[in-house]
Structure formats: structure tokens, C-alpha cells
Amino acid sequence: MQIKLAKKYGFCFGVKRAIQIAEKTKNSITLGPLIHNPKEISRLEVKFGVRVEEDTQMIKNGEHVIIRTHGIPKGDLEYLKTKDVQITDATCPYVTKPQEIVEFMSKEGYQIIIFGDKTHPEVKGVMSYSTTQPIVVSSLEELKEAKIGKKIALVSQTTKQANNLLQIASYLITHCYEARIFNTICNATLDNQESARELSKEVDVMIVVGGKTSSNTKQLLNIALQNCTDSYLVEDENDLDMRWFEGKNICGITAGASTPDWIIDKVKEKIQSL
């Protein structure tokens, strides 16, 4: 069976930067998982002593805290600054951007609308920078049911699909007196999504490698399924089901932005062993 890799896949700039920070800061604490990939989080803990803490109240004086790539709520960051701890901010610059936009535009009197998943840590962090209660929608249908004002500012979770953002932006432009639209989707996300879309048209089975809680990985799977119905999400080679490949000739592989090369290589090797 022939195996094709997407032109763009795997670690993005923000994730690479965060991993490098964690590897240089041994025995540190990350407030929430540094990235959405449990296998890589486990590697950092075993090899570098980097452990995860979910509760800011459990952070003790004298500890070294790394802010996760997705960022944290503004209140949590302000609390950490009151303690005797060393803080290293590994928030991806693409995530910092919507935080800054939301803070500024809300102070200017704009109603904030965030296109994203309200339970995602990135979105929770962005929400916290709004001086008024923001509206979070995951689809155009949700937006149509929301009570929106005449003066709004729109930002997006960095891993969303551009086409869906465009639909929401178009609706707001035609329903609001003033609409400020900010495209805060990460460039690497757009590249990975487009590469996955192209590859899924060329194969008869598609494997997406990444954390099952990763938003950008799930977006890649949704894109692949549009062109290749036999598309599957795996965290590592152990999730592969050999029945997926029966009667298939070309297998495509892509990976989420939080997926390290060593996991992708193992998945590829196992498929090649068929």
C-alpha cells in the first residue's frame, strides 16, 4: 500500500516554542496541559519532570510555572503574579492576539463575539479579557439564535475553519450597524487544513494523528471526512485498526499541530508493516 504524507502537518511554531521552553525548564509546572497531546505530555513528565497542575490555588511559592500554549484566564495570571513564583509564558502569539483584541474592543464599547468552543481553554482565556459578557458561538446556527447588538467585534478560536468564520462574518456584516471582523485563525492551522483537504481527495483511507481533545486535530478529521469517508483519528499507532486498510491502495497521513514527529513516525511504520 502506498503512503502519502500531507504537505503540511504536525508541530506548529507555537507548540515547538512551548516544548522547547518546557525541556529547558526541568521540574516545572504547567497550568493545565501544555499542549493537547497526552503522549507528549507524558514524555515531558518522565524525561524532564514537567508536571501538570489544573488548580492555580495548588501552586506553591518558589515553583516555576509555565503558562500553556492555549493561554489561561486573565484572573489566573494576575493571581500567579501575586505569589512568589517564577512565570514563563508559553502562550502562543496567535492566541495572545485575540486576547489583546478582545480587551481593547470591549473597552471601546463593542459587543464581543467569539467563534469557538466555549469549553476550550483557549476560548476561556480569550473570554476573560472582555470587560463585558462575550457571546461564544460554534456555528452560524448558534449565532442566529443569539441576541446581538448593532456594534460588534468578531474574533475566532485560532484552530477554526476559515470558511465557517466567513459565514459568521458575512451574517454579522448584514445584520449589524458596525461590524469589526478580525481573522485570528492561525496561519499554520490554515496551511495544515488546506494540505489535509488536498490529500484527502487523493487517497482511499486517511489517518489523522493527534490528541483526541485537540481542536485543530478534530478540524483536520472533519475536513478529511468531506472527501474521504474512511478517515480516522488516532493518538498513536496502538489506535490503528487493521480492518481500516483492507482493500485500500493509498493511505494518507496528516497530524495535528500538537503531534510530535516521533508519534507520526510510529504510525507510519506500523501501516507500512501491513
UniProtKB/TrEMBL annotation:
Signal peptide: none
Keyword Transferase: no
Gene Ontology molecular function: 4 iron, 4 sulfur cluster binding; 4-hydroxy-3-methylbut-2-enyl diphosphate reductase activity; metal ion binding
Positions annotated to bind [4Fe-4S] cluster: 12, 92, 186
GO biological process: dimethylallyl diphosphate biosynthetic process; isopentenyl diphosphate biosynthetic process, methylerythritol 4-phosphate pathway; terpenoid biosynthetic process
Record-listed (2E)-4-hydroxy-3-methylbut-2-enyl diphosphate binding positions: 36, 70, 120, 158, 214-216, 258
Keywords attached to this entry: 4Fe-4S, Iron, Iron-sulfur, Isoprene biosynthesis, Metal-binding, Oxidoreductase
Cofactor note: Binds 1 [4Fe-4S] cluster per subunit.
Listed cofactors: [4Fe-4S] cluster
Active-site positions on this chain: 122 (proton donor)
InterPro entries: LytB/IspH
UniProt protein name: 4-hydroxy-3-methylbut-2-enyl diphosphate reductase
Organism per entry: Helicobacter cappadocius
Gene that encodes the chain: ispH
